[in-house]
Amino acid sequence: MAVVYSDVTVVVDEQDDLFYTRAALQAHHPGEGRITVQPTPASGSPAALAHDMLYALGKRLAPGPNSPDVWLDSVNAAWLAAAAWGIAMGVRHVVVPRAHLLTARRIGQLLGWRESTGAQLTLLWHKPPHGLPTALAGVERRISGRDQFEALLAEPGPIPARPSFPPVLPVNTGAAATAARQAPAPQPRGSGAASTRPGQRAQPCAGALATAQLVQAVSAIGVASEESAALAALAHPLIAGALSVLAFTQTGLGSLRFTRDLDISGDVCVIKLHGAGHRHCPLHAVPAWARPLLAGARAHHRLMACSPRESVFSPVMLAEARHLRAHAARLPRLDLSLLAGILVP
Asked: pTM for the whole thing?
């Protein structure tokens, strides 16, 4: 029997029929927008379920007591990362077996994740339904039988299988837009902002969309598939996004300090980096393998309710970017030695 409330479904399997667990595990196809999350049994870590979600999304936390992923031991940080990846990867449906073993708090965390991502959530409850927590008590309809469960797993889900980020408006409006139209033809690596006289207020640097109309993007530097796969497995979207940019641009970490939401195009095909004083702000093409990683970084930024004009990577630039440095050291084949050039805030 399945009880459904909005986009949350509880499948009540009182007999603990192996069919339902097997069907749930076979339904795991991240490329189709559907994942199966297997909760770690008897884990006392507050962020354990979020880590299970990250694992189902193909992310791997760095091991060890001095892990650079230690900040993901925080419940809020871990669930925020899981929500960002869920949005970026276009997850439409999440299935959770053995949900009857979860505490009410962790079920609440799952419901909060669903609210953030808009995905459908199906919980397998392998015991009588009288133990359902209050959060799952609102039932609108009932479905029973194996066929109905298989049909539920085959449904496309409430959101697209691929991420869709509408582009934000560029900031070069008014005087800045007029200056951009009147400016001479820029070089391929030209700056997005004009020089100013002493005491004159600088015009805001145009975003990626506006710059792409004037400047040809610099081609991405090739990255081997093994290294791109290692970057894609990083658990935190800001770490994965930042290191991917450094890998395909071979630029210094300081260039990421001022990268804004509006510096990433809506289709995540180009990114604009910024030099000191916006004297040199090149536009770079984003390779296909890095687009989901930058999409995850931007989703993380937007889930924090940040402005499109705020820096996307600023949370990982603190404390001399030690998390970035630590992860870069674990990926020596990427040769991210330019990290050493960071300027301390």
From this structure: 0.83
